[in-house]
Specification:
Length: about 120
């Protein structure tokens, strides 16, 4: 059974940084493209960043230059380093395995809340 456990969220001031982690189990992690999504209150879930099995990454325009996705295959973990945070980055952040540009699994983890506020 696939399990995705996100952590690392919190309350941070504008301009601050956070590093999110997502531990995956039940999948062959090293061969999976992974992605980070976020869902703000009243909005649809959106794709933020992806990283393929070879380490190549892509980002939504809204986070390009501020966020960095990485992975550690030995730990079955994908990370999202978030810098220069803005209030509009406030959301619950989720990870998932990717199938193209969509999430592979319909069962999501609990997510981790990121709140950017002064």
């Amino acid at each position: 059974q696939v399990q995705l456990v996100e952590s690392g969220g919190g309350l941070v001031q504008p301009g601050g940084s956070l590093r999110l982690s997502c531990a995956a189990s039940g999948i062959i992690f090293s061969s999976n493209a992974m992605g980070w999504f976020r869902q703000a209150p009243g909005k649809q879930r959106e794709l933020v960043a992806t990283i393929n099995a070879f380490g190549a990454s892509n980002y939504a325009d809204s986070v390009k230059g501020r966020f960095a996705i990485s992975r550690d295959n030995a730990k079955n973990t994908v990370y999202l380093q978030m810098n220069s945070l803005k209030p509009e980055d406030t959301a619950v952040y989720y990870c998932n395995s990717m199938r193209g540009l969509v999430a592979r699994y319909t069962d999501w983890g609990q997510g981790t809340q990121v709140t950017v506020s002064s």
